[in-house]
Amino acid sequence: xxxxxxxxxxxxxxxxxxxxxxxxxxxxxxxxxxxxxxxxxxxxxxxxxxxxxxxxxxxxxxxxxxxxxxxxxxxxxxxxxxxxxxxxxxxxxxxxxxxxxxxxxxxxxxxxxxxxxxxxxxxxxxxxxxxxxxxxxxxxxxxxxxxxxxxxxxxxxxxxxxxxxxxxxxxxxxxxxxxxxxxxxxxxxxxxxxxxxxxxxxxxxxxxxxxxxxxxxxxxxxxxxxxxxxxxxxxxxxxxxxxxxxxxxxxxxxxxxxxxxxxxxxxxxxxxxxxxxxxxxxxxxxxxxxxxxxxxxxxxxxxxxxxxxx
Length: 310
Known about the structure:
Elements: E1 3-9, H1 15-23, E2 34-38, H2 48-53, E3 56-60, H3 69-79, E4 83-87, E5 106-113, H4 117-123, H5 125-133, E6 137-141, H6 150-160, E7 165-170, E8 173-175, E9 191-193, H7 196-208, E10 217-226, E11 234-245, E12 248-257, E13 268-281, E14 286-298
Helix pairs in contact: 4-5
């Protein structure tokens, strides 16, 4: 088997439409069978003609416990497919799901309706977080109706899965969203005075695009975490970000250099002003963002220590 396409998302998110679009692609018209496993039926149905043209065989799984290695192995033996598509039930537990060992290459996509994303994020945060935690793509439909909110959607998902890519589809096709449009501050400004939300986004964005921050002056409030084996002149400025619940938070932070770092207590709250530059981490063999502190003062902690991205 070549590829498994694992499509997850809540009911009416657009999973079936995405799969129908996949089946129309040239790759699905070539030799070999496609096994389509459907775990949830929405308003849109698969037509017999399109299934036949793409050599697709459909099987339905109605009970979560039946989505297991033994049953899927029987389906594989029955159809001997070249590829598999799974339309998963977004209300089922993705957290503890184990894929069959013979599924070697899995392309995982989380599908969302932009008009209902906030509703699910507010009320089913844990389920939503698990949908994106291992996804390679976050795919949004009706994005043009909520374009002003897409930046906050990106930030919330990035807090769970920093490596995910985004596709925004509107009525006229895909919306290409400039990464700078997702930021809660103006990246063109030389000096950035960051609030809690801005600090969290800075840490997430600079980890990927350290070069666009080089030379900028930043000011923020965070805890100072002393670096193990880091010497007397380094500490990490960090905060915890709520992702799905209090038991599942993400730590975000940035390495700081400061001549008097040895005077700081571990986890002490500080107000930092510094200049961003690129450093190199020998352990991970990769460039990282570093803040060279020019001014630091010890402060009281904020009212809300945990950041909730908006």
